[in-house]
Amino acid sequence: MSMNIIFASSEAVPFAKTGGLADVSGSLPSAIKALGAEVCLFLPLYRDIQDGSFNLESTGVKVTVPVGEKDIECEILISEAPGGVTAYFLKKDEYFDRSGLYGGADGDYFDNLERFTFFSRGVIEAAKALDIKPDIMHCNDWQTGLIPAYIKDTYSKDPFFKKTATLFTIHNLAYQGLFPPELFKATHLSERLFTFDGLEFWDKVSLLKSGIVFSDVITTVSETYAAEIQTKRLGAGLDDLLKHRKKDLHGVLNGVDYSVWDPETDSLIAANFTADDLAGKQSCKDALLKEFGLPTGKERPLIGIVSRLVDQKGFDIVTKAARKILKMGFALVLIGTGETRYEEFFRKLATENPKSVGVKIGYNEGVAHRIEAGADIFLMPSRYEPCGLNQIYSLKYGTIPVVRATGGLNDTIRDFTEPGGNGFKFKGLSAKALLDTLSEAAGLYKDKSRWKKLMCTAMKEDYSWERSAGRYMELYRLALSSLHVS
Ligand code: ADP
Ligand code: GLC
After folding, report:
1. 407 CA: nearest ligand 2 atom
2. pLDDT tens, 447-465?
3. Which of 4, 65, 115, 400 has the highest count of CB atoms within 10 angstroms of its CB?
4. 486 pLDDT band (50/70/90 cuts)?
């Protein structure tokens, strides 16, 4: 009999996205299904999903979920996710009919603990009501971190989940879902779980810690990050716990969906191209320069950035180095949103350098694709990076990644001086290290034939999901076997 997997996530392409978690949740389930498992995806029904054109239908199933003093009734809707995966949506407008996923202009929503307590327990109740008996609950990040705790505690005697194991994937250890202790009772978990060994973290409720403590297997999205989060520097206060669970912690590199991110078929870019016929790449560069109001026809390397504008992504060193980067003869296009100081910095940089810097503050899928396609270099000097997807997309578009050697950047990019080099990689978190590396890139860019060779190596890289999906299947089996032991 095939394995039955419930994949619970707070975002998934094409339904709702704030970052890479959505790309993964939108593509990994179908890759797992392709290996013969039964997979369904559970998501909250956000406003944009309700208003979008996703052919939502009612399942006719309703569940009641206790949250704090309330019994919350919700309806389960159904639609199809990519690759023929069934997607279920928990409809509770009071929680999810809002403009954002986790917050608005004034910061995080005040009731996020309630919202994701509801979602986590709702997924479990919905599975029962829909009669989907899961072998595996695959949970992702803090928003679903309570599911393993419910399975191990509240539902431990429920025969329906007797053979259900849990796997928890950490996409970013820095986002922990921390809430004041007085909110713990809203979860209806036993009081004895609110301890150091449970989901208490410096007197706060930590939903991420819940996922780490109570799941059978823990994964994170690259091998280097799996090692890094066991150190003080990148352990975000959870390094001792992660070391303690070391034997259950595995790094599985994300794959990408080449049906969305491939210059040969991408319908959002100016011209299609391949490693064998690169003519379209120049058209994409010209169109991108025009879209950002920059002059065309200059023989200068164009750096692209698509990113959340936050410290994680190394913007402190980028802002320090920016003016020198321009002096070196680069042009720059950027799309991003995030911290005000970075948004203001880049707006000002563009105003001061109208011929060499183009900036869009905002979120736009089409522009992201066009930067991937039209830039020569993709810059991603992250302070830490669990996996990172943009550098992997860049490879496919022949846009050479310049990255810091951390997390998934370290595991996907080989420096051009190494055998099979596909980009540029540096270690130090400093403006100098970044500038030195960009200067090497500028040098190589002038040597057209070597640069083209580098592009072709990059474009031939294959980071499709197949390998990693197989790895998840092995880990699902491992999680199931751990049930028999305990
Ligand atoms: P993270 O999840 O940490 O933000 P990833 O590299 O894993 O980083 O994934 C980011 C995803 O979000 C990519 O698909 C990227 O193209 C997209 N993205 C980020 N910022 C923007 C933006 N301003 N406009 C469009 N897409 C964006
Ligand atoms: C997180 C990480 C990013 C990773 C993504 C998907 O947002 O910051 O590095 O690629 O999750 O796993």
Report:
1. 9
2. 999 999 999 999 999 999 9
3. 400
4. low
In the chain, the domains with their CATH numbers are 4-255+466-481 (3.40.50.2000), 279-462 (3.40.50.2000)
Q: Are 400 and 394 in contact (CB under 8 A)?
A: yes
User: Phi and psi of 10, rounded to 5°?
Assistant: -90, -5
CA distance 469 to 32: 5
Pocket test for ligand 1, best of 343, 371, 390, 409 (most atoms within 8 A of CB): 390
Which protein residue has the closest C-alpha to ligand 2 atom 3?
A: 388
Tens of pLDDT, residues 377-429: 999 999 999 999 999 999 999 999 999 999 999 999 999 999 999 999 999 99
Q: Which two tokens stand for residue 120?
A: 């986590």
**Given ligand 2 and candidates 139, 389, 394, 404, which is best to mutate, with the most ligand atoms within 8 Å of its CB?**
389
Average pLDDT score, the chain: 97
pTM of structure:
0.97
- Residue 144 C-beta-side C-alpha neighbours within 13 Å: 27
Instruction: From the CA of 312, give the closest atom in ligand 1.
Output: 3
